[in-house]
Design brief:
There is one protein chain. The N and C termini lie far apart (134 Å). The protein has helices at residues 22-47, 120-136, 161-166, 197-205; strands at 151-153, 170-178, 184-191, 208-209, 212-214, 217-219, 221-229. The longest helix is centred in the first third of the chain and has 26 residues, at 22-47. It contains 4 helices and 7 strands. The radius of gyration is 51 Å and the shape is elongated. It is an alpha+beta fold and 232 residues long. The protein has a domain at 142-229: TolA/TonB C-terminal domain, CATH 3.30.2420. The strands form 3 sheets. A 3-stranded antiparallel β-sheet has the order 3-2-7, covered by helices on one side. Strands 1-4 form a two-stranded antiparallel sheet. A two-stranded antiparallel ribbon has the order 5-6.
């Protein structure tokens, strides 16, 4: 069977069903939703008139730092090795015969009265004493000390008369060795115009300091002292 297909004329307008027309129901749906939203907000305000937010505090675990005390390293001093035996060497001198040997001598060196050599324990104890003395006399660098020396007595250098008459000015730096008692033990290198060297060294020798501290003990350090020579 063949079905006849009817075509709609082009001038006939399209019609929608009332149930499928969303524009007709839009105002009603919007008013319902708005009313429900107002009622919901009113209920929330009625049951919860105030709102207080509490900040949550985060518990921080304490950080425990453990300090490990590392023992100081010391250099062990071993006794010197015994001298090497003398090896005979052939000579090129034609006057010496091939059968020449070293003759025995009758010298008596009284070796029987000599004391026996020290034992290993005595040598170790001596080395420990030497190490302790060297450690006490060691000069520590200034940047390594825990507490640097501070001047407690300053001496102003005398302006050299020769430099004053010649109108010479300048800066001089004197390096001094500060001992454990804070006094200057030695005057070292001097940097600056040579005409001021003697005056700066004489003044630097009279300075006194609080001793430098390293490992809770006073130590010897080199300190630089600047001097300014300026005419008034």
């Amino acid at each position: 069977m063949s079905q006849a297909i009817t075509k709609r004329p082009w001038h006939m307008p399209l019609k929608k069903f009332a149930e499928a027309d969303l524009r007709r129901t839009y105002p009603k749906v919007l008013s319902y939703c708005l009313g429900a939203s107002l009622v919901l907000h009113a209920l929330v305000l009625a049951f919860f008139p105030t709102f207080e937010a509490e900040a949550m505090q985060r518990k921080e675990q304490p950080i425990i730092i453990q300090l490990e005390q590392v023992p100081e390293t010391r250099q062990e001093r071993r006794p010197p090795p015994p001298p090497r035996p003398v090896v005979p060497i052939a000579t090129d001198n034609p006057d010496v015969s091939d059968d020449a040997t070293i003759m025995e001598t009758d010298f008596d060196f009284d070796l029987d009265d000599l004391a026996p050599p020290p034992s290993l324990g005595e040598l170790q104890s001596r080395n420990v004493e030497v190490d302790m003395e060297e450690e006490e006399e060691e000069i520590v660098e200034l940047w390594r000390v825990e507490k640097q020396p501070e001047p407690v007595k300053e001496v102003v250098p005398v302006y050299p008369e020769v430099a004053r008459k010649a109108g010479i000015e300048g800066h001089v730096t004197v390096f001094v060795l500060v001992g454990k008692n804070g006094k200057v033990e030695a005057v070292g290198k001097v940097v600056g115009p040579e005409v001021f060297h003697e005056a700066a060294k004489a003044a630097a020798a009279g300075w006194e300091f609080s001793p430098a501290i390293q490992n809770d003990k006073p130590v010897r350090v080199w300190v630089s002292l600047p001097f300014k020579f300026q005419l008034n």
